[in-house]
Design goal:
With about 100 residues, the protein is α+β, with helices and mostly antiparallel strands. The protein has helices at about 25-35, 40-45, 60-70, 75-80, 85-90; strands at about 5-10, 15-20, 50-55. The chain has a three-stranded antiparallel beta sheet with strand order 2-1-3, sandwiched between helices. Strand 1 and strand 2 (about 15-20) form a beta hairpin. The longest helix has 12 residues, at about 60-70.
Length: about 100
């Protein structure tokens, strides 16, 4: 059985969101929380895991990360809250019909 990959989203101290992917979510969270992963999260600790999804391949994890990184703050918040109706409405965009 192949090892799964994860797409995840963290909320940082300043309420910004960080989206990433990994093959070991537990270790990656330890790195983010300790500030050893570097970059955005190391300067804005503490961080909180607000959402994650398991996917079968690294490619799917990377594609999920790239897709979510381009989302609006409102869509990221709806995802973190598990508010699927709001996420669906926001996904339609301002120029799409119901």
């Amino acid at each position: 059985m192949a090892k799964p990959f994860f797409v995840y989203m963290l909320r940082c101290r300043n309420a910004s969101y960080y989206v990433g992917h990994t093959d070991d979510l537990r270790v990656r969270l330890i790195q983010h929380r300790a500030g050893t992963y570097g970059g955005h999260t190391s300067r804005l600790r503490p961080v909180e895991l607000v959402w994650f999804a398991e996917v079968p391949t690294r490619l799917e994890a990377l594609e999920g990360e790239m897709r979510i990184k381009n989302w609006s703050r409102a869509k990221k918040e709806a995802l973190a809250a598990g508010d699927w109706q709001r996420l669906k409405r926001l996904a339609r965009g301002p120029n799409r019909r119901s």
